[in-house]
C-alpha cells in the first residue's frame, strides 16, 4: 500500500443523509390547510451542530430558504424547488408525493454544496423548529440565542423525536 491510499483509509468520509418524509395535511378541510413534511437529517459532518435532527417544514418555508440561500450564495447556483402547482392533474396524494420527492432532491443538492452549507439559515431550517421570522432574528443576532444554542436547545429538548 502506498502512503497515499493509507491516508484515505484513515480519513472518515463525511456523510449527510437528508430525508423528506411523512407529508401531513394540517387544518384539513379548511381554507388555510397546508401540507408539512418531516425532514430527517443524519450526519457525521463537522459542518452540522447536531448529528441527527428531525423537524417539520411546509413548502413556503422551503421557498423562503431557497430565496435566502440565493441571496447569500453569490454566483453559486441554488437548486430548484418543485413547482407550486395550482392546476394539478391527478390525485392530491400523487401531487404531494411528487413535491416530497422534489423537496428531498432540493435538500440533497443543497447539503452537498460547501457554499450553501455555510449559511446558518440552512442549519436553523434543518435543525431547529424556529419559525422563519425567528430564524431571521437569530441569524441577525436579535434572538435570545445564538444559532448554535438554538440548534442545541432543540436537539436537547428531543422535540425532533416526538413528531
Automatic annotation (TrEMBL):
Cellular compartment(s): Cytoplasm; Endomembrane system; Endosome
Family of this protein: Belongs to the sorting nexin family.
SMART domains in the cross-refs: PX
Keywords attached to this entry: Cytoplasm, Endosome, Lipid-binding, Membrane, Protein transport, Transport
Membrane topology reported for the UniProt record: Peripheral membrane protein
Cited SUPFAM superfamilies: PX domain
Coiled coil: none
Protein's recorded name: Sorting nexin-11
Lineage of the species this protein comes from: Eukaryota, Metazoa, Chordata, Craniata, Vertebrata
GO biological process terms on file: intracellular protein transport; vesicle organization
InterPro entries the record matches: PX_dom, PX_dom_sf, SNX10/11
Keyword Nuclease attached: no
Signal peptide: none
A GO cellular component annotation in the UniProt record: endosome
PANTHER family: PX DOMAIN-CONTAINING PROTEIN, SORTING NEXIN-11
Keyword hit for Protein transport: yes
Gene Ontology molecular function terms on file: phosphatidylinositol phosphate binding
Domain PX: 15-132
Organism, as annotated: Charadrius vociferus
Amino acid at each position: 500500500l502506498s502512503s497515499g491510499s493509507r491516508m484515505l483509509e484513515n480519513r472518515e468520509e463525511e456523510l449527510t443523509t437528508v430525508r423528506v418524509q411523512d407529508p401531513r395535511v394540517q387544518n384539513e378541510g379548511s381554507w388555510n390547510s397546508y401540507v408539512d413534511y418531516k425532514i430527517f437529517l443524519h450526519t457525521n459532518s463537522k459542518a452540522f451542530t447536531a448529528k441527527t435532527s428531525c423537524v417539520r417544514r411546509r413548502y413556503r418555508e422551503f421557498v423562503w430558504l431557497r430565496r435566502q440561500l440565493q441571496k447569500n450564495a453569490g454566483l453559486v447556483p441554488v437548486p430548484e424547488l418543485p413547482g407550486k402547482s395550482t392546476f394539478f392533474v391527478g390525485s392530491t396524494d400523487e401531487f404531494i408525493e411528487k413535491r416530497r420527492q422534489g423537496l428531498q432532491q432540493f435538500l440533497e443538492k443543497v447539503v452537498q454544496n460547501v457554499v450553501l452549507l455555510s449559511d446558518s439559515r440552512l442549519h436553523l431550517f434543518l435543525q431547529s423548529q424556529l419559525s422563519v421570522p425567528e430564524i431571521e432574528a437569530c441569524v441577525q443576532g436579535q434572538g435570545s440565542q445564538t444559532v448554535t444554542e438554538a440548534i442545541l436547545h432543540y436537539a436537547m429538548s428531543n422535540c425532533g423525536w416526538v413528531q
